[in-house]
């Protein structure tokens, strides 16, 4: 007797089994993710990415917003490492955002941190076929390494200069300079008494000069007064001489008028005194000229009365 098989149930069982296998395969391959829920970006690093692995976290200001999908050497530049980041579509990657390689404490595990991005900056446009590139910034370790390298180079250079500065020859020269300075100081100490004496003599000389200047001023004032007095006396003398000359002239005119009338014999009266009268007139003229020259000299140089610096002009007949 043949057994009857329900082919409908068998077919339904096989259909359910295949559906389960297909669903399980999709689950294993993570094909159940919504492709439209993610965006992709590229990042190029010029430093070591040791500790960074695929599926490493990508954080935006500390919030997990994606993962590192792949890591490889840039085929167009062997000095760069190319990263492909898979980010949630709502992640606001701006044109002024940048990526930094960071580490979890002392574990050595690395992740990518997206920082920057102002509110006013536009969003980066990207797609899976034409992925946009996010700029990078050196990590803390790279900055420290560069700083330490620079400090080490400067320190080495400073040590080399210090060795050159403190060489045996320079130390010997400094010792000689200090010895010379000590000798100079001792010599200056020995000259202190002479310096004090020189200063005292300078003060005394200054006092003498002050007194001499004061005496000169007083002498000049005295000479000025003397010249004024002498000028007055000379003026009075000249006036007296002029008066005498006028009187002599009047006397001569009177005598001439008397002679014209014939009152006296001219030769009898004038013969004894004519020579004396002519001499008196001549001397009066000479005295008048000398007094005029003396007065002019006093007006030009009153100090000649005391110091006799100007040469006296010779008088008439000298």
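-> sequence recovered:
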């Amino acid at each position: 007797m043949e057994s009857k098989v329900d082919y409908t149930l068998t077919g339904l069982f096989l259909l359910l089994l295949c559906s389960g296998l297909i669903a399980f395969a999709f689950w294993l391959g993570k094909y159940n993710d919504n492709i439209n829920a993610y965006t992709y970006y590229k990042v190029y690093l010029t430093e070591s990415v040791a500790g960074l692995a695929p599926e490493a976290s990508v954080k935006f200001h500390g919030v997990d917003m994606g993962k590192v999908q792949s890591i490889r050497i840039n085929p167009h530049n062997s000095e760069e490492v190319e990263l492909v980041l898979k980010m949630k579509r709502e992640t606001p990657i701006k044109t002024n955002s940048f990526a930094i390689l960071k580490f979890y404490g002392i574990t050595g595990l690395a992740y990518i941190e997206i920082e920057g991005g102002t509110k006013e900056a536009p969003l980066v446009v990207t797609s899976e076929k034409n992925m946009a590139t996010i700029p990078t910034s050196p990590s803390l370790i790279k900055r420290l390494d560069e700083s330490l390298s620079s400090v080490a180079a400067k320190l080495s250079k400073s040590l080399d200069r210090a060795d050159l500065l403190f060489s045996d020859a320079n130390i010997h020269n400094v010792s000689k300079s200090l010895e010379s300075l000590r000798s100079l100081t001792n010599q200056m100490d020995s000259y202190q008494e002479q310096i004090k004496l020189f200063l005292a003599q300078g003060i005394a000389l200054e006092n003498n000069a002050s007194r001499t200047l004061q005496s000169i001023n007083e002498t000049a004032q005295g000479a000025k007064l003397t010249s004024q007095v002498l000028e007055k006396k000379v003026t009075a003398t000249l006036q007296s001489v002029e008066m005498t000359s006028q009187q002599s002239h009047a006397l001569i005119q009177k005598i001439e008028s008397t002679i014209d009338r014939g009152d006296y014999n001219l030769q009898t009266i004038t013969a004894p005194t004519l020579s004396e009268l002519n001499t008196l007139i001549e001397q009066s003229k000479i005295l008048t000229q000398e007094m005029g020259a003396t007065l002019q000299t006093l007006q030009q140089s009153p100090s000649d009365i005391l110091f006799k610096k100007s040469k006296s002009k010779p008088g008439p007949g000298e």
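Residues 198-307 form one domain.
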